[in-house]
Each structure stands twice: as C-alpha cells, then as structure tokens.
Amino acid sequence: MDDASQNLRTPANFMKDDDVSQECKNLISSLPSEKDFTGRKLYSYQGSWYYPNTLQAILNFQTHFQARDSDIILASLPKSGTTWLKALAFAVVHRNKYAPNLESHPLLSDNPHNLVRFLELDLYVKNQCPGLEELPSPRIFATHMPFQTLHESLRDSPCKVVYVCRDIKDVLVSRWHFRSKLVSNYSLEDIVEEYIKGVCFFGPFQEQVLSYWKESLVNSNHVLFMRYEEMIEKPEAQVIRVADFLGCPFTEEEKQSGIVENILELCSFGNLSNLEANKTGTSTCGIPHHGFFGKGGVGGWNNHLTDDMARKLDEMVEKKLEGSGLKFE
Ligand code: PAP
C-alpha cells in the first residue's frame, strides 16, 4: 500500500458513528438502513443515504443554521466538479480583495475545500454551532445534500445556490478510482450495481440532480444549474454566468483586462493539481487534498466501463429523467 492509499484509508469523521445524540439515535432507529461498500451502515433520511455522523451534522445544520440573503451555497454530488466550482466561485466573489494573478492568492496556498467548507461534511460535524454568524458576508458554503434537505434550513431565504452536475458515468469512474484506494477488490461491477440501486452516500444520484434541476426551472434567481461538461467546453461563458447569477457581473473593463482568463488559469486543473498545497495535507473535512484530483475532463469512463455497463447506466438515467426536460447526451 502506498502512502496515498494509507492516507485515504483513515475514515473521515463524517463517515463515523461516534458523535450521535439521543435524538439522532431515536431518528436512526426509525430509518431504513443498508450497508455501504465497506460494511458501514447508511441511513435513508429525506430521500438520501447518510452515515450517522453526517446525519447528526444535517440535523445540527437544519436546527441551527441562520441563512443570510447574501449567502452562496455550492451544491453537487461527490465527484461532479465540486473542487473546481469552489475555486471558481471563491476567485470570482473575492476578486476585488484578491486579484486572480496575485502571488499571494489564497488558492495558491490552500485547498479549495478549506476556503469553501462543506456544511454537513465539515462545519456541522461534531459541532452544533460552528460560529458562522461571525463570518463576513458574502459567506460561501458547500453541500452534497439534495435540494429538499437544504431548502428546509434556508427557510425561504433568497440566497444563491449554484448546483453542478456531471455525466454519471464519469462520476462513477471518478468515485471508483477514489474508493479503490480505500478497499481492495472493489470492482466496477459493484459500483455500477450500487448506482443503479441508488443505495450509496448521497444517493440515489439522479433524484438529487432532479431536485436541483426542478428548482432551477421554477426559481432561476435562487438556483443556478450548471454542468461540468459545459464548464470544460466553454469555461469563459460559464464563469461569466456564475458571476452574473451571484450578482457580481464582470464589467466590460474587467473583461478587457483579461480577468476572466486569469481566474480560469488560476482555477485550472493543471494549475491547482500541481500546487504543493494540493499535493500534500488533509482538508478540514478529513480527505487528503490529492484525493480531489484525478485526471479531470470528460468521457474518461470510456476507458473503464464496458458497453453493457454504460448502457445500463444510460437507461437508468434516461428513465429517471423522463419528462423532466433534462438530458445527458
Ligand atoms: P469531491 O466530491 O471529492 O469534492 P469533485 O471535486 O466533485 O470531488 O470531483 C472530482 C473530479 O473533478 C475529479 O475528476 P476525475 O476523477 O474524473 O479526474 C477531478 O480530477 C476533477 N477536478 C478537480 N479539480 C478540477 C479542476 N480545477 N478542473 C477540472 N476538473 C477538476
């Protein structure tokens, strides 16, 4: 086992079950449960599967979080482009404080997950009141929760939610690479079955994608729906879209000055993945920084999934999304 695998084998706090209140234990006893790929128990709450400590963190969040209208929440499924979106949103929102070509830009010395922290995987794990009211506006947070669970805590705040999704086949292969370092003999067949059944951490996946898609259609000022593939294809247009949505559009002068290109370069896979800060160390949510970077890009699944696996996944997605207007080519 290499150092990287050793690092990844230590379970993060959110995967454990050692910090659960009596109230949460009572709730858990009433919830459907299944085992994950390591044999750990997952529980289904409000339509999604969680480990006990994550569930406790969600309850903490739902009870104590006070949304501000200026809040920004970046939402996604794991392995869908979260790290990239965190970096881009941070760079866009704080561009007046930190010019993207600044030698001391925070993204050059820290991992995006430490600059934009997860609510249920980090801030509210083992902490009912993480002191968020002291943070200056605009606050930027991240989540992997589905919209209905997030929405309950926002209590109708018109804050901004940016959701990024990615072709499930690339998500699956990305997750498989990551998990293969955690568990030996973890086959692609296993993970395909898991995805089709929908019983996995934050699954079932298409339900979550749909929860944000539907909200983005009816409440487009509140939820922006983005796709990793479009970010790869037309990064400039997508960053401009994010800035417009967040209420901090680029001025013509800024565009002329090349700031959009500078932000894209700063947040590019090549730049971030080669930084010492992202090659070493562990994020505040307990995942080694290097675990957030694979090869990046679109269609990598083609080198791993058989035609049969790809067909099964495509059929499942098509069936789930039928009639929603959302399509994955
Ligand atoms: P997380 O759930 O662990 O936070 P997330 O950031 O959502 O992961 O997704 C990781 C994927 O985004 C990886 O894809 P891969 O496994 O197919 O390679 C990772 O390489 C890719 N990624 C990370 N940073 C960037 C970036 N700056 N630009 C493009 N892709 C990126």
From TrEMBL:
Instruction: List the record's Gene Ontology CC terms alphabetically.
Output: cytoplasm
**InterPro entries per UniProt:** P-loop_NTPase (IPR027417), Sulfotransferase_dom (IPR000863)
Gene Ontology biological process terms from the UniProt entry: sulfation
Q: Which GO terms describe its molecular function?
A: sulfotransferase activity
| Coiled-coil residue windows | none
Listed EC numbers: 2.8.2.-
Task: Give every Sulfotransferase domain span.
Answer: 69-325
Classify the source by domain of life. Answer: Eukaryota
A Pfam family: Sulfotransfer_1
Please provide the record's keywords in A-Z order.
Transferase
Q: Which family does it belong to?
A: Belongs to the sulfotransferase 1 family.
This chain's protein is named: Sulfotransferase
Which species does this protein come from?
Answer: Brassica napus
